[in-house]
């Protein structure tokens, strides 16, 4: 299985990089995982709805340009469907069973994902009703992907 994480924003925090590297190493025996980091647009503290849309659209164009045409696309969005780890594992297993061996996970910038990106997504996934920093979401997503592979293979995982 080939998994891409297409994310807006540069990862700066050393502790997040270390965690991400650890999960990428753990995942290497299950799947090929690539992280594509795209530049974010600078957003002022006080921003109008029009400026917000403009920024999301610019970031969205960058994201859309990187999505493989044959990928199943999962957008991480607060308004997406919430799943348990077991349900998430079942979803990934089902995709693999039905020949969807390329999955692209999309993580937007601090303002979220554009409407065009959401239209391209095959599904929207939410990890919580809470808002998380987009850099931290990469680590959380990788941990859940790793957990999903452990669940799919009947291997022990921390509950």
From TrEMBL:
Signal sequence, renumbered to the chain: none
Cellular location(s): Cytoplasm
Ligand binding (S-adenosyl-L-methionine): 76, 108, 127-132
CDD domains associated with the record: RlmH-like
Annotated family: Belongs to the RNA methyltransferase RlmH family.
Stored HAMAP family: 23SrRNA_methyltr_H
Entry protein name: Ribosomal RNA large subunit methyltransferase H
Gene from which this protein is expressed: rlmH
């Amino acid at each position: 299985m080939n998994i891409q994480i297409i994310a807006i924003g540069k990862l700066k925090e050393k502790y997040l990089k270390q965690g991400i590297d650890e999960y990428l190493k753990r995942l290497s025996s299950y799947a090929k995982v690539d992280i594509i980091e795209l530049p974010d647009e600078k957003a002022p503290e006080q921003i109008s709805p029009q400026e917000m849309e403009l920024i999301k659209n610019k970031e969205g164009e960058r994201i859309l340009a990187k999505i493989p045409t044959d990928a199943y696309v999962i957008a991480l969005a607060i308004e997406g469907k919430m799943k348990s780890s077991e349900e998430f594992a079942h979803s990934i297993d089902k995709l693999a069973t039905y020949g969807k061996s390329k999955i692209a996970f999309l993580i937007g910038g601090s303002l979220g994902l554009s409407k065009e990106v959401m239209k391209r997504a095959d599904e929207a996934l939410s990890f919580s009703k809470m808002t998380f920093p987009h850099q931290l979401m990469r680590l959380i997503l990788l941990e859940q992907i790793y957990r999903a592979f452990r669940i799919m293979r009947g291997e022990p995982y921390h509950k």
